[in-house]
Amino acid sequence: MLVLLAGIFVVHIATVIMLFVSTIANVWMVSSSSFGTISTGLWLLCNKTCSQLSVKSGDETSLKVVQAFMILSIIFSVVALILFIVQLFTLEKGKRFYMTGAVMLVCWMCILIAVSIYTARFTGKTQYVTNPHHGYCFILAWICFCFSFIIGILYLVLRKK
Questions:
Q1: Where would you find this protein in the cell (predicted)?
Q2: pTM of the predicted model, to two decimals?
């Protein structure tokens, strides 16, 4: 049981780190243009230098929603990590990890909303570029989506042990 808890703790910390990286780095979409490789993220557009990401006025709200839900997912993931540590040492068996699992599933839902909106609104819609494809931040966000769901379910299953 101790090995299982340690494994879940390590995966949870890895998920938090990957959420930070995927939110902060600007490599959600990568494409080529006459100026070289262009990468766009949630905040900046980077070629050789980075500048403010400009989007159409209709897509600006969608980008703000994606940014907000990614930040919320980081917050919920960190809160779930703190709750895990607190509940591990303070609550008795059978009552542990209810809140941790619930908060982690809320984190999972925030990631789902953010990445789904980004996929629907921003994938391949960059002008004057060729060969657009997803960058590592987009892929990390989907990996965090899977990890947060698995961790949330495991917390709910472990409440009885």
A1: Membrane
A2: 0.87
